[in-house]
Amino acid sequence: MATEMMKAVLVEEGAPLKLGDFEKPDLKPGEVLVKVAASGLNRADLVQRRGAYPPPPGASPIMGLEISGTVVETSDGASRFKIGDRVAGLLAGGGYAEFAAVDEGSLFPVPDGMDMVKAACFPEALMTVWANVFDRVGFQTGEAFLCHGGTSGIGIMALQMAKIAGASKIYATAGSAEKCALATELGADRAINYKTEDVGAALDKHCPKGIDINFENVGGKIMDQVIARLNDFSRMPLCGLISTYNATDPLPGPYNFSNLLMRRTSLKGFIVIDYFPRFPEGIQQMAQWLMAGKIKFETDIVDGLENAPASLSRLFEGKNLGKLMVQVSEPPAA
Ligand SMILES: NC(=O)c1ccc[n+]([C@@H]2O[C@H](COP(=O)([O-])OP(=O)(O)OC[C@H]3O[C@@H](n4cnc5c(N)ncnc54)[C@H](OP(=O)(O)O)[C@@H]3O)[C@@H](O)[C@H]2O)c1
């Protein structure tokens, strides 16, 4: 039988990302085949795999991290999904393709009425924020919250969920006036343009009582300035270090690390896959908020796989306003 082919965005060693033909995946036991409606990824994944960097050993040469789509095939009769189900999930590469073979355990039913592009953001971006804001930091009403990358997929949700959690003051950093305006619209009391303002001086001026929760996404110089302004018993979910992802040399540690001791700060590293067992609970809660209009999700949508390779550079240039997603095919009706 002739091998079935599909379109996919491929990474090859030393070559730019390109749209190419790839074998349609065969299903292993426990997997389902998903016709992809929308897919996204974050910059950390792209840095590891783009251009001169080969994919990690064993990784799919197809880009992509999170997907939504329709189940078109199941591997055995015991599947909890049936053909036609709308699903979203997280995979270790493979979403920028017409079809993806996905382990059932990392798939979730998309709630009725939910837009499929937004649904593709659930597994990574939304769960990362939900897990940290509502589970890990012990948020107390009246605390001051700071989030970096204020208009990234993560940032947008963090600002809104901090408000739901009862933050007294919400601060954001972002890389342009337009992004700061969006962060303010989404709930930040003050958004600091880290490209034109001194973050430390701006925090001293607008946040004189200090920070209780620093949702860390960037690292580097900004993180240093924030560590110097943390309150006693502050918490610091360590979610990303995006300012360091392109570094090729060893990086210096935070110069005022000792303040974490003096302020008795809890710093907790986080990787979203550890939260798989809590996904159904988190997704249900966030779907309710989204559909009730309590939170909104800003997406920067690229139409069609053929436009994905060129558009991914926007993640490096900070041009994406909201979570960068690729709409791969016409989504099934909500
Ligand atoms: N731990 C986990 O499980 C997990 C899961 C998902 C994401 N993350 C992390 O969360 C962060 C945000 O991810 P995302 O997917 O939401 O974002 P994204 O879509 O990859 O966007 C990246 C954002 O980072 C900002 N940025 C880029 N370079 C920067 C720099 N040098 N200094 C400060 N900000 C910079 C850009 O905005 P500006 O224009 O404002 O600079 C951009 O909005 C990343 O660090 C990512 O690795 C972690």
Give a verbal description of the structure.
It is a single chain. The protein has 334 residues and is an alpha/beta fold. It folds into two domains: 148 residues, Alpha-Beta Complex (Quinone Oxidoreductase, Chain A, domain 1); 144 residues, 3-Layer(aba) Sandwich (Rossmann fold). The chain has ten helices and 15 strands. Strands 3, 4, 5, 6, 7, 14 and 15 form a seven-stranded mixed beta sheet that branches. It has a six-stranded parallel beta sheet with strand order 10-9-8-11-12-13, with helices on both faces. Strand 12, helix 7 and strand 13 form a beta-alpha-beta unit. Helix 2 packs across helix 8. It is globular, with a radius of gyration of 20 Å. The mean pLDDT is 88. The site of NADP nicotinamide-adenine-dinucleotide phosphate has 28 residues, from helix 1, helix 2, helix 3 and strand 15.
Q: Quick gist of this model?
A:
The protein has 334 residues and is of the alpha/beta class. The chain is built from ten helices and 15 strands. The strands form three sheets. Strands 3, 4, 5, 6, 7, 14 and 15 form a seven-stranded mixed sheet that branches. Strands 10-9-8-11-12-13 form a six-stranded parallel sheet, sandwiched between helices. Strands 1-2 form a two-stranded antiparallel sheet.
